[in-house]
């Protein structure tokens, strides 16, 4: 049985160089269809200037760079930016990566055609993030607010891992997510014009090892558990998968994006 979450935030020291806990190895890429659809709306095209706020390990920034866009990825984590830079160099791309808060990037104003905002960037209704995006975008620039999430109500593997997370007392706000993605909340209608919404489901392929790696390195999981608890969770996860899946399988994910234009960017 998992132990109760400790009140303190102390952690045992997992070696940051241990590949088992390296997010850059285990986090899946968005499916190619995501980038193809965005291109039909003019995002990710050649010579376009894109800022990827909360870039993490640079999954989206690197793909946009492959497509010929000029991309700067921003993240407050020096470790993730280092890995993103390494990946960009390994792919012989010129994507740039910058250590800073998405709320205060220090980048030049009115420079970018599009701002990419995932969960690491924070909520768009936050005043500081909205103000920084307004400052960075050229007139007529677009915001792409996006996500890639598993569907526990439709996929048994996703349901099983959520049950495991809850048994380990993870505060998992997405537990039982039904896949609903609102078009444009009423509170945002005075600030943004909705240009387009992209929503589709994609079965993402995994092996048992890669799915376990994805779960144990995911933000919102690894930062809630002590290292001892994380290893216990991973061991129990392996046992669950042995009874539920073959060596290779897919997990159904919902891919979504809202393309928005700030109403007060002129």
Distance between the termini: 57 Å
Shape: globular
Specify the CATH class: Alpha Beta
Estimate the mean pLDDT confidence: 88
Describe the largest sheet: 7 strands, mixed
Reading the helices and strands in chain order gives: HHEHEHEEHEHEHHE
Number of domains in the coordinates?
1
C-alpha Rg, in Å?
Answer: 19 Å
Walk across the major sheet and give the strand order.
3-2-1-4-5-7-6
Relative helix content: 25-40%
Strand content: 15-25%
InterPro entries: Methyltransf_25 (IPR041698), Methyltransf_Superfamily (IPR050508), SAM-dependent_MTases_sf (IPR029063)
GO molecular function: methyltransferase activity
Domain Methyltransferase: 50-141
Organism: Maioricimonas rarisocia
Q: Would you give an account of this structure?
A:
By secondary structure, this protein is of the alpha/beta class. It has a single domain (19-262), classed as 3-Layer(aba) Sandwich (Rossmann fold), CATH 3.40.50.150. Helix content is 31%, strand content 25%. It is built from 8 helices and 7 strands; from the N terminus they run ααβαβαββαβαβααβ. It has helices spanning 23-26, 32-40, 59-66, 78-90, 127-136, 156-167, 208-216, 227-244; strands spanning 49-53, 70-75, 96-99, 112-117, 137-150, 192-207, 248-262. The protein has a 7-stranded mixed beta sheet, sandwiched between helices. β4 (112-117), α5 (127-136) and β5 form a beta-alpha-beta unit. α6 (156-167) packs antiparallel against α8 (227-244) and α7 runs antiparallel to α8 (227-244). The termini are far apart. Residues 1-14 have low confidence and may be disordered.
């Amino acid at each position: 049985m998992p132990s109760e979450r400790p009140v303190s935030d102390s952690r045992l020291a997992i070696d940051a160089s241990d590949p088992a806990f390296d997010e850059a190895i285990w986090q899946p890429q968005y499916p190619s269809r995501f980038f193809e659809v965005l291109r039909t709306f003019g995002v990710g095209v050649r010579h376009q200037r894109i800022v990827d706020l909360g870039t993490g390990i640079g999954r989206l920034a690197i793909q946009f760079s492959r497509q010929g866009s000029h991309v700067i990825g921003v993240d407050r984590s020096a470790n993730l930016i280092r890995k993103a830079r390494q990946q960009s160099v390994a792919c012989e791309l010129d994507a740039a990566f910058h250590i800073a808060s998405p709320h205060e990037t220090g980048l030049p104003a009115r420079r970018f055609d599009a701002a990419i905002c995932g969960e690491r960037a924070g909520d768009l209704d936050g005043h500081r993030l909205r103000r920084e995006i307004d400052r960075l975008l050229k007139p007529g620039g677009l915001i792409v607010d996006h996500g890639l999430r598993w569907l526990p109500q439709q996929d048994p593997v996703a349901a099983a891992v959520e049950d495991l997370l809850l048994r380990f007392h993870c505060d998992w706000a997405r537990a039982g997510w039904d896949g609903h993605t609102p078009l444009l909340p009423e509170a945002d209608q005075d600030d943004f014009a909705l240009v387009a919404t992209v929503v589709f489901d994609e079965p993402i392929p995994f092996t048992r090892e890669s799915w376990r790696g994805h779960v144990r390195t995911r933000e919102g999981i690894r930062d809630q558990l002590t290292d001892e608890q994380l290893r216990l969770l991973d061991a129990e996860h392996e046992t669950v998968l042995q009874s539920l899946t073959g060596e290779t399988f897919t997990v159904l994910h919902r891919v979504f994006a809202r393309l928005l234009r700030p109403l007060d960017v002129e």
